[in-house]
């Protein structure tokens, strides 16, 4: 049965959990009687106390209807997709913890909550939480069930050490935009000597360049680093013999010819190591891409794999598949670069 506007607003106003409510399509044969609202939940996806109160005392604003809840084990994605694919025994509401975007490719199988006045409750929720329920076509197929800012977590102890307020409202007022956020980070940097704060100047620079959220923010900062410069200088001092350089000069080689035919072959093992080391470091980096890539469609594989872990349930097969995919490029780069490790250090000793 279709979800009416009255039933939607009643459930949305009374919900107090940490996830989303997916609305089933009314064109499919649903569970329950005509006066019954069927609800599928998973462990801790919806407050047990709230559901019990609704089952015994009824739903405020939806008199004449009774709630029938079924708590289902396992991974919700498998259960929901099976029910929708069979187009039978589909519940009215499905309480999940996250991952609403999984169902965006098939928005027509869900009720569009915009048609039932959902916008009347938008002011009660965080904008990003509300927008996660809306498909690219503008259909609202889910409803956020947490009425508080449960998605905002921060280290209160660090803020207290820096003399910054920890009150959520005052903290939000202090950093309403990027400028306020950057200024707040600078204040934290002055009072803390933790490694993560070192990311603030780099983030500020990229924000000034307008690169935040773009792939340039990942590629360019990692293109050169202090370790690479130190490593190659030390390696070149020990690998390139002065006799090779002097011999090439006697044979009439200029600077660039010396670099190309004498220096580069000798430095190839060191360059191979640096390339592999840098690739492994950047490829496995999690914190920086998580901070700088604000577009969910451009996250790195490591961030995407972490997002496969649900708050209460995790599809282990998807996590293992993602981990395998993340290892394949590492193996390929190592196999390609490792052959240079055995290169002859005297490869540049040749007659010009």
Task: Tell me about this structure.
With 352 residues, the protein is an alpha/beta fold. Helix content is 47%, strand content 8%. It has 15 helices and 7 strands. Strand 3, helix 2 (48-57) and strand 4 (66-71) form a beta-alpha-beta unit. Helix 10 (226-239) packs across helix 12 and helix 14 (301-307) runs antiparallel to helix 15 (316-338). The longest helix has 30 residues, at 255-284. The termini are far apart. Residues 1-18, 25-30, 147-152 and 344-352 have low confidence and may be disordered.
Helix count equals 15
Q: Largest beta sheet: what is the strand line-up?
A: 4-3-6-1-7
Kindly state the mean pLDDT as a whole number? 75
| Rg, alpha carbons | 29 Å
Number of strands: 7
Largest sheet: 5 strands, mixed
Question: Structural class, from secondary structure content?
Answer: alpha/beta
Instruction: Give the low-confidence spans.
Output: 1-18, 25-30, 147-152, 344-352
Shape summary: elongated
| Helix content class | 40-55%
Distance between the termini: 85 Å
Question: How large is the share of residues in beta strands?
Answer: 5-15%
- Secondary-structure element pattern, one letter each: HEEEHEHEEHEHHHHHHHHHHH
């Amino acid at each position: 049965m279709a979800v009416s506007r009255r039933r939607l607003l009643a459930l949305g106003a009374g919900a107090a959990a940490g996830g989303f409510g997916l609305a089933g399509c009314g064109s499919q044969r649903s569970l329950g009687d005509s006066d019954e609202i069927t609800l599928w939940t998973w462990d801790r996806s919806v407050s047990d106390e709230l559901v019990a109160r609704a089952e015994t005392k009824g739903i405020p604003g939806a008199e004449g209807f009774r709630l029938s809840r079924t708590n289902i084990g396992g991974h919700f994605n498998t259960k929901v997709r099976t029910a929708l694919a069979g187009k039978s025994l589909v519940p009215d509401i499905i309480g999940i913890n996250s991952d609403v975007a999984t169902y965006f490719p098939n928005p027509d199988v869900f009720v569009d909550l915009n048609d039932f006045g959902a916008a009347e409750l938008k002011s009660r929720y965080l904008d990003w939480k509300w927008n996660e329920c809306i498909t690219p076509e503008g259909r609202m197929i889910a409803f956020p069930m947490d009425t508080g800012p449960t998605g905002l977590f921060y280290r209160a102890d660090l803020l207290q050490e820096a003399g910054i307020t920890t009150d959520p409202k005052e903290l939000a007022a202090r950093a309403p935009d990027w400028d306020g956020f950057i200024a707040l980070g600078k204040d934290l940097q002055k009072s803390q000597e933790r490694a993560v704060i070192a990311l603030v100047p780099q983030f500020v620079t990229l924000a000034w360049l307008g690169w935040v959220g773009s792939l340039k923010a990942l590629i360019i900062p990692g293109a050169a680093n202090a370790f690479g410069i130190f490593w190659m200088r030390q390696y070149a001092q020990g690998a390139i013999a002065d006799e090779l350089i002097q011999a090439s000069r006697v044979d009439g080689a200029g600077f660039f010819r010396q670099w190309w035919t004498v220096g580069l072959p000798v430095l190839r093992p060191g360059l191979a190591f640096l390339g592999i080391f840098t690739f492994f470091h950047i490829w496995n980096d999690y914190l920086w891409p998580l901070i700088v890539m604000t577009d969910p469609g451009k996250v790195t594989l490591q961030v995407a794999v972490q997002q496969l872990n649900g708050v209460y349930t995790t599809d282990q097969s998807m996590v293992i598949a993602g981990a395998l995919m993340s290892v394949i490029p590492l193996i390929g780069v190592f196999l390609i670069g490792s052959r240079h490790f055995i290169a002859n250090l005297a490869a540049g000793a040749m007659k010009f």
